[in-house]
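Reopening this one. Same input as before:
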Amino acid sequence: MGHEAYQSGLDCSVLMLNRHYMAIRIIGARRAFSLLCRNLAEVISLEEGQFSNYDFHNWVEVSQFKRDFKPDGHDWVSTVNFYVAVPRIIRLLFYDRLPRNEVKFNRRNIFARDKNKCQYCGKRFPTCELSLDHVVPRSMGGKATWENIVCACPACNVKKANMTPELANMHLIRLPEKPISNPLAHIHLGHDKYKSWKQFLDHAYWSVELK
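Same output, byte for byte:
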């Protein structure tokens, strides 16, 4: 396994549950392995429709079997002596606080809510080519809120300038609003490798805070 595969494995996302199996946030694989190695968490693995629990030592052993028989079904991280599969879900052993009910108001979640589409022309762009626009400009009293911030491409941003959409003769394709659940969770659920998350994210009132 080359350096790129090693890096991509560590960059994977992991759903973290509290002690009562409630989803509390999405974290990176690095943090997940740190928790597992310190015996603060266990792996929850979906296997033939059933969830199984593994401590880190047992997960390393199971990983060897998975690598021999189902290598394409997992992302991998290599150590000096062995490969270990990146878990999709971990469960904290001593943390029983409930998940927050708020979705974080940040750039990442706004891009996710708007699905990387300019909210004026409707075209999809890479994140690096999109900016955030105040629907009502700050110079007119517009605030940085879910209901007043949208994704905009450079061309539409320049056209709108320091005006409201009405003054610029532009129209929003969808009125911005605050998501009731984390929009990035639904993006992850679109990937087959994260299908084991679905059972824990089915309820809209479970808010998943991002890393």
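So the earlier flakiness isn't reproducible anymore. For the record, The two ends are 27 Å apart (CA to CA).
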